[in-house]
Specification:
18 helices, Outer Surface Protein A, domain 3, alpha/beta, single chain, three-stranded antiparallel sheet, binds S-adenosylmethionine, Rossmann fold
């Protein structure tokens, strides 16, 4: 196959043809689950070139699903004769006219990738486009960063959602299920073409795609939720629209934070994947904290990791300049000179959560993400905002003792014991959350017992009285330290505020 990929995403002039395309993929069993079954254990989005021999063997039979996998996931040519097995409803003329597939002699190749993801089909550019002169407007697929943001997104009923920097439209499509309207912005026109194709392919009618720079296309409008995976990479480059924000240092992310509040309705959230410059000799969060001054928003910066600039530049150069190995070293050197000129030594990565909360003093929390995240963690994130609202409303320990809590259904207790002549002796106990943000920490056994007796009906004060008796301590002496620990457990989601009546069900995190 010698044909080069088309420069445009496929165009189907008649909407019926997109429905036929979807139907053909469904008939072929081209779904996330069937693909995983056919190719083995791996996540479909992780298919890499090192897997090709294995995948080639697994798709050798050549049925419709094999053909779809080879064409659209592996970007491999197939025999032109195999096409009718996959495209049973669509006319071959329409197929070729659309540019989705090109035939050269006896071989057919796909111009784009299509990934079955959850119950969606997501079209985007093949990575080989990054090696062409047209790489600047490359539209990336469902990457690790897309998944991180999707996983962290708060999924609650939202009137209007904004997907800023939509790319292939993945965040907007996921938000469409819980939003009455989604507006998806990108400054790359090709991204919008992919976004529109994907919305049609998935029969989503509530996404509006708009071309423009950052918030400019939605001036004067407000949203209940803004999600953004912006081109956050800090570099001297402007090679790729999807990666390089084209602003100095971390300015693009700072600008989004500074501008977002105007576009958020009261109580609305901005969630943004972000890289930020960390000051060399101060606390890591000192620089990024200033972004939130006077925003009228509560902010939570959840750091996943920090890299020194050499490691950071090497990672990104290797990630994108896949085959241009000769240019790796000069490029990394160029990036490092840029960092030196700006005095940047370390770059932090993580998620910024911003909630518009006007008319009162705002808080900024900057801390580490737990080492493990189980499943979607949007509920954990929203729960922490609610927990902090509650804690901010409690002015004394006595007030806290009057409240009722519920142990999280996701809390787990673990105890480690060491052998002694008298048998096993408990030496360390810990609490852990096994869903969402998996916080964990050592716990005193008496506190662990108090936690497990939080059933939503008994006041904290009653449980503290029992605890004082059980450990033989004076109640007054333990109140302050116990309340401090309870505050932390509420803050991290181990304890949930019970409903006002005190009947069992937790009020936060999963409602
Ligand atoms: C890292 S990609 C994220 C794509 C997708 N939202 C996801 O999560 O996979 C960043 C996207 O932002 C777009 N973008 C870059 N600069 C922009 C700007 N100034 N205004 C709007 N979109 C921009 C790029 O074209 C690209 O589609």
């Amino acid at each position: 196959m010698t044909g080069s990929p088309t420069s445009c995403p496929p165009v189907f002039r008649n909407p019926v043809d997109i429905r036929l395309l979807r139907q053909d993929f469904e008939n072929a069993g081209f779904t996330a689950q069937s693909v995983l079954q056919r190719i083995g254990q791996k996540e479909a989005h992780e298919i890499g070139s090192e897997d090709l021999p294995l995948l080639f063997a697994r798709t050798a039979a050549g049925d419709a699903l094999d053909t779809a996998i080879r064409l659209f996931l592996m970007s491999l040519p197939v025999s032109a004769e195999a096409l009718p097995r996959l495209f049973r409803s669509m006319e071959s003329e329409t197929l070729l006219e659309s540019g989705l597939v090109q035939i050269d002699g006896k071989e057919a190749a796909a111009a784009i990738k299509i990934l079955p993801f959850q119950d969606l089909l997501v079209a985007f550019d093949c990575r080989r486009r990054l090696q062409t002169a047209a790489a600047v407007d490359y539209v990336m697929g469902v990457s690790g960063s897309s998944l991180t943001l999707a996983n962290a997104t708060i999924r609650r009923p939202s009137g209007r959602t904004l997907d800023l920097g939509t790319g292939c439209g993945i965040q907007g499509m996921l938000a469409a299920a819980n939003s009455s309207q989604v507006v998806a912005i990108d400054r790359n026109p090709r991204a919008l073409e992919f976004g529109r194709l994907n919305a049609a392919l998935n029969n989503l009618c509530n996404i509006e795609f708009r071309l423009g720079d950052l918030f400019e296309p939605v001036e004067g409008e407000t949203f209940d939720s803004i999600v953004t995976n912006p081109p956050f990479v800090i570099s001297p480059e402007t090679r790729y629209i999807y990666r390089d924000g084209g602003m100095r240092g971390d300015e693009i992310c700072r600008r989004i934070v500074r501008e977002a509040p105007r576009f958020l309705s009261e109580g609305g959230f901005l969630q943004m994947l972000c890289n930020w410059i960390e000051p060399s000799e101060q606390d890591w969060s000192d620089g990024v904290r200033e972004w939130f001054d006077e925003t009228g928003c509560d902010a939570w910066v959840l750091r996943s990791h920090t890299q020194d600039v050499v490691a950071y530049a090497s990672k990104w150069v290797r990630h994108t300049e896949l085959r241009e190995t000769d240019s790796w070293i000069p490029r990394v050197e160029e990036w490092c000179s840029y960092y030196k000129a700006l005095g940047i030594e370390r770059i932090g990565s993580g998620l910024i959560n911003l909630r518009r909360s006007s008319g009162r003093p705002n808080w900024v929390l900057a801390d580490e993400a737990p080492a493990t995240v189980f499943g979607a963690c949007g509920d954990s994130i929203r729960g922490r905002f609610e927990a902090r609202d509650f804690l901010g409303s409690i002015s004394s320990d006595e007030e806290l003792l009057e409240r009722r809590f519920h142990v999280s259904p996701h809390a787990r207790f673990q105890s480690r014991s060491a052998p002694t002549p008298d048998g096993w002796q408990a030496e360390q106990a810990s609490l852990e959350l096994v869903h969402g943000l998996s916080y964990s920490g050592k716990v005193d056994i008496a506190i662990a017992n108090l936690v497990v007796h939080c059933n939503g009906e008994r006041r904290l004060g009653e449980l503290v009285n029992e605890m004082a008796q059980a450990v033989g301590a004076e109640r007054e002496k333990i109140i302050a330290p116990v309340c401090s620990i309870v505050r932390d457990l509420v803050d991290r989601g181990f304890l949930l505020l019970a409903s006002a009546e005190g009947h069992g069900r937790p009020r936060t995190h999963t409602d």
